[in-house]
Write a structure and sequence with these properties.
The chain is α+β, with helices and mostly antiparallel strands and 612 residues long. It is 26% helix and 28% strand. α11 crosses α14. The longest helix is centred in the N-terminal third of the chain and has 25 residues.
Amino acid sequence: MKLLRIIRNTLALIVPRGRHGALASLQPAPAGRSLLDKMGRAYVRCVEGEEHMNISFSYRNKQSSLNRPINEALEKSLTRIQSTLKKHLDKEMKKRKKMKLDDSASSVLMNVDELDISLVSNKNDPIDVDVLNESAWRDGAVLSVGDIQYEVCRNFPTIQRLHLPSFVLVGCPVFPRITSEFTKGEECSYTWFRQVNKQLGDKDMNDATDNGENPNWLEVGQHKTYTPTSLDVGSKLKLLCTPKNGEKVGEEKECVTMRAVKCGPEMYPFQKRHEFTKDRTSPDCLRIFSYNILADMYADSDFSRDYLYPYCSTISLDIDYREQLILKELSGYNADILCLQECGKKLFQYSLEPALNDQGYKGLLICKTRQTPEGEALFYKEDRFRLIDQHDISLAEAFQEEPSNKDLVEAVSKSKAMLNQVITRSSVLQVTVLEDIHAPRRRICVANTHLYFHPRAGHIRLIQTITILRHLHKIQQQHLEKNPDIELAMIFCGDLNSSPTCPGVYELISKKHIPENHVQWYCGGKEEFCGGMTLTHSLDFTNACTSQEYTNFVAGFVASLDYVLIDSNHLEVVREIPMPDHDDVTAHVALPNDVFPSDHLAIGCDVRWKNS
């Protein structure tokens, strides 16, 4: 037994382990396999414009990672490698002595000072130690550490982070969150596995074993996304991702879901709406949706759980759960244009953008000011539109800095309290000009915003709205002057925090006029009363979605706050996408809930060019 223990301890020090922790085979590699199969890998990250490079490799089961200046001589880097390995092995020896392990394996831990550490080119020519790191560590070079060799893999495709949602539901596509370098998502290979339970039959166990993986896992898919089925219920999922870039293949990375797959409802209410959006629109039409998706920072907090949404289950407010529903809902609308409000920066970056990109969308995001990690996002179908220009603004900055708003600043400045309210708001306006690929003479200018929410801030929303309308008019005039033969249709979407029946915002947009003595100028009280002013504009907007009774339904508040406004000179409504049944909305008290991921409902319509 003592002899076996000595052999085992020795092997643990000198034999690399596989990614599952098993000892790697000591058999020689078959003929014809690459150097990477016969030796280890030394990964070198050296990016143009950065002053340092990183060198990482595994020596005697210990991972070493060194950051070195790119303009440093190779000799210094090799010396640092030696000193780093000495620290690792000294630490290992102290650990062994402390644990009173057999000293018979200590001979394996040879004196690192006597190790020959060198670097040769891919042609087996020694590299001069005076050569700078940037030139020395080239792809295919070989690093020798004693009798162990490593092939240098410079800027190899790398998966830096792989994450799966903590909640996985049957019928909801699972989109992995991937952070990578030197590769693109479409170049990677993906393999999905389902955990095989003991209760399953022998066939499943045999299939799992035949895959060459841990026999507890059964391969179920080979695409970037995977939609769980009823067979997956009660099992966890695993994703194995291998980064690639041409012939370069990086180290695979795997991730397992935190929880087992669960059954969702037989049908989500928004799937009834999908029955009306199964098909894409014709070339002369376009489908537009606007949706406040409820930012995670407002949903997942003690205040929201205890006061805003006390009727919600903990799960229904979790972003990992809501993300699954949001993606499933958006995917089924087949929209040409998606305007989202309260879109979290991380949700956009790691989930919505890559997932919708796989479905042919290009995504754009502008976060609110004052370091607010949520804002407005626009997605458009790349096979339908081409991006021409962007004119995003902060409403507070445009109010103060745009010369055409001088009259607004002068009027509002009569009340310091009102002025402070206007200039400290974080609201932004996302403006995107798109060209129709099928008809290049046709362009649309899509505006997307979320106005200040406070119930007693109607006067602030008026200033924000006129700032938006003036900005859009300026864009319209500039584009028509530069391109007189172009048809430019304006589209204005967003959560305006004001209903069509409420005096103020919609009244200004639709009637183009607000008098000096309008009631909304007084809603901030005497302290925020600036004396009022007359507001006018010349843009022609009509409300394309008018059938809904409400778009926001929470305990104690119900209103229609969301809009798709279209240019009445160029566009007309073909149809509105029916809203969810009221009984479905109230089945779980209010929004959000287990089947509705936001406290708002998406609104959508099909519109077409008038001269089609």
